[in-house]
Amino acid sequence: MSLLPFLDIIFGTIGIFIVTFALQNIAEVEDGIPPGIDSIVTCVGGDRLTAHWPDGSTGPAVSPERSIELLQALAGDGRPFRSLVLALGGNCHEARMAFLDGFQRYLDISARSVTADDKPPTGLMLELYPLGDGGDAAALLEEWRKGGGK
Question: In CATH, what number does 39-146 get?
């Protein structure tokens, strides 16, 4: 009789482990980019940023210092973006820093124009995606466009 509380704890712990293992098998993580990405900006060579859209079109390659112009072109091209992936190769550290700085300035400019027009702000999401080389970038874009960018 004195072992019943101990056995209750043991069986409760076993039950928790069974539920945890069962849920881990159900929730498998898929590789790739999340759904709903409007545009992808790639940096493979280390000194050039290129915008890509789901329909297969590609913007001109620009230097990272002109990233705010790239973002304005993405937003003003009749294909507004709310979610954006920055896919970076291993030698793109300076481009990453310049793009993030440009993205912050773009958000500041957008916030001023939104409050001046009294329009509701649009939610923008930026996600960083590591790339190995140009082949990885091509595979990422092909996989993304296969689903229509969504």
Answer: 3.30.420
